[in-house]
Design brief:
By secondary structure, the protein is an alpha+beta fold. 37% of the residues lie in helices and 17% in strands.
Length: 196
């Protein structure tokens, strides 16, 4: 489903997103919010999508710890402005491939409270996933998802790995895909290596 969501967003130029907004009746705890932000990037939100060089292959997840920092509004606003601020946060661009695939913002409220908004691309995380990501980050739990670093494969490695994975994951259509895959690999000068 993540792959389909990503392909749809890539084709349309926009995609579905998830946003969670909450209010704390206390002033902003910058250190706590930064720790929460860091934990999000080392949890279920700690990845983005890297496109396969092969047009028919599945794209892969790579490590991405998130934006450099939290966007904190400089001017406090009344609670009556909360919906408008939340809508403004939802309009900020999200890109599951190039980033940011998620972002976190905070708004000081005139009455001394704080509003926090987390928005994420639906191609990166679903509804239950974002609930788990927020719970994990708030309690200090991080996860090592084993994603490789972006750009960690050469183009040649990516072509070979993705072609092998595509062939191996489609046993019922292997023969139907064999010729187009080998033709594409021949264009890259790698046709003979797919059998290795």
């Amino acid at each position: 489903m993540d792959q389909a969501s990503y392909l749809g967003a890539r084709a349309l130029g926009f995609g579905a997103q998830i946003q969670v907004t909450w209010i704390d009746n206390r002033p902003i705890n910058i250190d706590g919010l930064r720790r929460f932000h860091r934990n999000l990037g080392h949890g279920l939100l700690g990845g983005r999508i890297e496109r396969s060089p092969l047009p028919f292959a599945r794209d892969r997840w790579v490590y991405w710890p998130g934006p450099d920092d939290i966007e904190i509004a400089e001017t406090p606003r009344p609670r009556a402005d909360l919906l408008a601020w939340s809508n403004d946060r939802a309009r900020l661009p999200l890109d599951p491939e190039y980033g940011p695939s998620w972002h976190l913002g905070a708004l000081p409220l005139e009455d001394g409270g704080t509003a926090v908004s987390l928005a994420a691309s639906h191609a990166v995380i679903g509804g239950l996933g974002i609930i788990q990501a927020v719970a994990d980050a708030a309690s200090g739990r991080t996860r090592h998802l084993g994603y490789p670093r972006p750009g960690s494969r050469t183009r040649r490695q990516a072509v070979l790995q993705d072609a092998r994975q595509t062939v191996a994951s489609t046993p019922n259509t292997q023969e139907a895909l064999r010729e187009p895959i080998l033709r594409t690999l021949d264009e890259f000068g790698l046709g003979a290596e797919i059998h290795g």
